[in-house]
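Q: Could you fold this chain for me?
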Amino acid sequence: MGFERSGLEDIAQLPLTEKDELRATVTADNPFGAHLCVDASELVRIYSTSGTTGTPSYIPLTASDLDNWITCSARSYAASGIAAGQRIVSTYNAGPFAAGAALAAFDRLGLTHIPVGTGNTERLIKAVELLRPEAVVMMPSYAAHLAENYDLRDSSVERVLVAGEPGGGEPAFRAKLEEGWGAKVTEAMGVGDVGVSLWGECEEQEGMHLGAYGFVHPEVIDPETGAAIELEDGAAGELVLTHLRHRAAPVLRFRTRDHVQVRTSACPCGRTGPRIRCIGRTDDMLIVRGVNVFPSAIREVVSEFAPAVSGHVLVKPQSPGVKQEPPLPVAVELAREGAVDAAAISAKLREVLAVRTQVELVPWGSLQRSEYKSKLVER
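A: Sure. Below is the predicted structure, expressed as structure tokens.
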């Protein structure tokens, strides 16, 4: 089961677009890059990326682009089962990052939106306690942090919607979140240069549906060769996206660097087309003696040792670059009163991921918690 053939498959014959290519065309006179396709007077919104690798990239939108982003976000979040009239607390700020555009999707869905933003944990807890929302939306690592430090199991929250980083779809990590919140956890995913909340998971929790169908064309490629991979059940590779209706700064075959798995079996929710699960970032991937290792996959295996471990890990490559020699050092944080054998964790990682590791057990609370993206790799 897949998308009907529309001729878009032929896009795979065109070159891929790299993020660095876009950056290379930025000038003092044109901070958006050579792919800007409208007059500056048509722009109604300018977002930026986090700039973790250098100067922030600026993402311009026309009025129609912004409306399309909101439409796609509303579709993606609607898949989770939230319904008009319910209350939702959000922890994303309206700017400067593109995730802020998703906030308008909650209005479009008819939700009562309670924006808290980042850096306001006590305010968030108070809002949950006094305003009794049915849903919250946040980073999965922040959801885990809250569940560790507050008893939320008897709160009004029925749905925790997570996005912004891989993790919400990892079975062990998701189970930990659901236990800590006493709520169902579903995830959504977007790409700043393409659109926010392009994908959203339904209540079946079997991968994210493309909420941006008709606005974005998805592909999967081999990250090493760039060759297109058929969107069939079980396929895995790097996600590539093409704008279909974007006006301001459209991208063609944009490499997202997100490594995904594809599912094409029929979904009981009735939505059609392939679904995806994000495994991790291809630019975070390490190669240990020929084995591809994603830090998020390490976290998923380690989470199976709960409640002895907190679920937080930090991979510490010893060499620059992607290729590493075994054993790969991994810091594993214990739970508050946890005790576990480091050798048992190493053995499980070797069994599941076929990689030899050196596990260091560290005390509870010693690894980073964040309201934004978790740090899984430290060089």
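A (continued): The mean pLDDT is 91.
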